[in-house]
Amino acid sequence: MFGFKYIKADPSTHLMLFKEGKIKLEGVGVNFFYYAPSSSLVAIPSNSKELPFVFRLQTSDFQELTVQGQVTYRIEQPHEAAKMLNFTIDTKGKYTSEDPKKMDERVQRAVQVLLRNHIESKSLRDSLVCARELTIDLKKDLDGAEAIASLGIEITDVALTSIKPTPETGKALEAEIRESLLKEADNAIYARRLSSIEQEKSVKESELETEKAIQKKEQDLEESRLEAQRLRKIQQFKINQEDITAQIEDEKQLEELVSINSANEKARGDAQAYKIQVQMQAYQNIDTDKLRVMSMSGMAPEQLIAQAIENLTQGDNQIGNLNISPDLLTTLTNT
């Protein structure tokens, strides 16, 4: 009515009221009445905005790749943004120009330029594996970019979701990587075989060393056994020598004993012969009959009877027949 209007900004919009080129009223989420014919309203969003992007870039080795990601930003300094772009709204709250849409384009362009500078300084292989490093560098560069700072924009987040080569290049890289992996697998197999051979060689050497040690131990044992046998034989030889020496001494003593016994036997024989000679000389002077009577003096009765019977068969007293009665025979046998 009469040109007076009422406006209410939401909590995510920084609203400014301009009159005669000067800010009369401003704030986030403010509401007020204003006179439309002499007033201008500028509405700058203060909430964060997510801006996805996809860029086709070229590496230092002239290979194309696609970088996809997202940048999140917000207008931190609305006055700076209002100076660079037209955020004027009409009485219905709609922008009167296309400048607010250019904000996204400018941010995208700044991101594209910075990404291009980074990618062009790297080879394809390095670019495909530098997502983390590139994200950090991009965030830092955007914070210091003049094009971003002049718009009063704050970059709150940068995320790179993928870095991909062209399909043909991707297949070539996959083939190369596959061949490299196969080669590494072959090398691993050869390495395992070589390691197995080395281990088997080590085992064989250990077995040979063990066998040599066993043979050396057996040789030492055999030498010890032979040395023990030699010592036993030397000891046995010494014992035998001592036995022979003892036997020789015994034989010498036995020889002396035999010699002494022989001398003694000879002496006893000489003494006995002398005794018999003396007796015979004594018997030669004695009459035969007397000698016989003397010899019969110590005889037993049966011997005397036998001598009497013998006398009957000799000399002048010889008889032709001799009859012995049973009584006489019994008497003779019982005698």
Automatic annotation (TrEMBL):
Record InterPro entries: Band_7 (IPR001107), Band_7/SPFH_dom_sf (IPR036013)
CC annotations in GO: membrane
Membrane-topology annotation of the record: Single-pass membrane protein
Keyword Coiled coil appears in the UniProt entry: yes
Coiled coil among keywords: yes
Keywords: Coiled coil
Residues of the Band domain: 11-184
Main location class: membrane
Record-given protein name: Band 7 domain-containing protein
Organism, scientific name: Pseudoalteromonas holothuriae
